[in-house]
Amino acid sequence: MQNSWCATGAPTGCTPGRKPADVFDISSLPWTAFTGLNLNAPGNATHMSPNFTFGKYVHREDKLFLPLAVQMHHAAADGFHTARLINEFQEMLADPSWLD
Known about the structure:
CAT-like_dom_sf; Chloramphenicol acetyltransferase; alpha+beta; globular; 3-stranded mixed sheet
C-alpha cells in the first residue's frame, strides 16, 4: 500500500513508506478560541513531527490574539526548544515585513 505522503502530486524527493523530515502537522479550529489543547491519538509514541493547532483569533484592546497549541514529542524537542520556536514565531507575526 502506498503511503499518503507519496501520493500523486506529492513533493519531489518523496520515498514510499517514509515521511520527509521537513514536514509538520498543522490544523485549525477557526470557530473556537482555546487556552490549551491536547491531542491523544493512537501511534503518538512514534510521531516525532510537531503538531500546530490554531484557534479563532480575537481582537482585544487594539491587539489581535491568535491561539496556538504546539504539541511535540519530548524525544524530538524539550520545552526550551519549543519555547524558542514559539517566541520566534511571535516575533515574526509582530513584524510582518519579512513577507515583502
